[in-house]
Amino acid sequence: HLSLLRKLKGKPTETKSGQRVHLYANISRPSDAAAVLANDAEGIGLFRSEFLYLEREDWPTEEFQFDAYGQVAQEMGDRPVIIRTLDIGADKQVDYFNLSHEDNPALGYRAIRICLTRPEIFKVQLRALLRASAYGNIAIMLPMITSVQEVRDAKRILEEAKSELRGERIDFNESIQIGVMIETPASVIMADELAAEVDFFSIGTNDLTQYTLACDRQNPSLERFADPHSPAVLRMIQMTIEAAHRHGIWCGICGELGADLSLTDTFLRLGIDELSVSPTSVLPLRNVIRNH
Ligand code: PEP
Ligand code: MG
Questions:
Q1: pLDDT computed for residue 2 by the predictor
Q2: Which residue among 136, 159, 167, 248 has the highest number of C-beta atoms inside a 10 angstrom radius?
Q3: Nearest C-alpha to atom 3 of ligand 1 is from which residue?
Q4: φ and ψ of 198, to 5 deg
Q5: pLDDT tens digits, residue range 248-286?
Q6: How far is CA 177 from CA 81, 139, 163, in A?
Q7: Mean pLDDT of 16-35
Q8: Which residues are within 8 A (CB) of 169 and not within 5 positions of it... i.e. 6 or more apart?
């Protein structure tokens, strides 16, 4: 690892023929930013903000969230920090949300669905994200999107948060970028329409595999059927990248598959713009891309 670091630190992530890929890292808590920098990732492609909710007894306040996001943004300087809005429900349960029991939680009341039906909760997070955007290069990413309407509803709440802050004379980045996770088959099928609404796509291959192949991602006995190398999943990825590029926006992958070195060639051939992987996978992936 140390020799990879010595060899690759500060080097661009590009193939021998000059194809450039943005190589970012995934984090779950602000303290992980140190590992992102130590492994020389070019930014944070997925900050799973739900951990700010999971590791507490009660609602995280706007101030608490502002501190967390602002700290990461500041630490990363001008490197992009893509923060995913609350993605709880399904495998991630939080007591104080008082969610009722569901027979099919993966198909249930989760993530953006909670945020859009309880905008007062969503607004706290959006205000904290906007305020933190004055301190670095923050972008907002929406999880579990299945329709254009959901994106428009989320953007409307974001606009409300912006106008509140303007009224309070609090600084934020007026042109903050907003993207969606592509992790449901519906979002792939609607990718052209979604691309017209946002600045970027990031493919969540963990959920996209689960929902495309109808295989619970938590059930180990499905391993043989839940193959993310399935042509069905790869074709979904191809369709998403093509739709993004038709509309002039970038498309990345932030699910586990992004770090699968046996697929790096395929992703490069499909024209992937960004890969976001765990901090320890950054340099091995840069090495493979630079040797391509
Ligand atoms: C995904 O679904 O691929 C993803 C990146 O998000 P999570 O694993 O947190 O659901
Ligand atoms: Mg997901």
A1: 76
A2: 136
A3: 204
A4: -130, 175
A5: 999 999 999 999 999 999 999 999 999 999 999 999 999
A6: 11, 5, 16
A7: 97
A8: none
Tokens of 50: 């739900």
Q: What spacing in Å lies between the alpha carbon of 229 and ligand 1's midpoint?
A: 16
Among protein residues, the one whose CA lies closest to atom 4 of ligand 1:
204
User: What is the phi/psi pair of residue 5, to 5°?
Assistant: -60, -45
Q: Does position 94 have pLDDT exceeding 90, yes or no?
A: no
How far CA 209 is from CA of 54, 203, 236, 243, in Å, comes to 24, 10, 10, 19
Does ipTM surpass 0.95 in this model? yes
Joined together, the tokens standing for residue 13 give 């992530």
The residue to which tokens 């020389």 are assigned: 40
Helix, strand or coil, per DSSP, at residue 80: strand
Alpha-carbon gap, residue 221 to 86, rounded angstroms = 29
Atom of ligand 1 nearest to the CA of 206: 3
Whole-number Cα distances in Å, 67 to 63, 70, 72: 6, 5, 9
For 145-175, b/e burial (b = at least 16 CB within 10 A) is bbeeebbebbeebbeebbeebeeeeeebbee
**CA distance linking residue 228 with residue 238, whole number of Å:** 13
**98: exposed, middle or buried (C-beta count within 10 Å: 0-12, 13-18, 19+)?**
exposed
Q: Give nearest CA residue, ligand 1 atom 1.
A: 204
11 CA → ligand 2 middle, Å = 30
C-alpha 278 – ligand 2 centre gap (Å) = 15
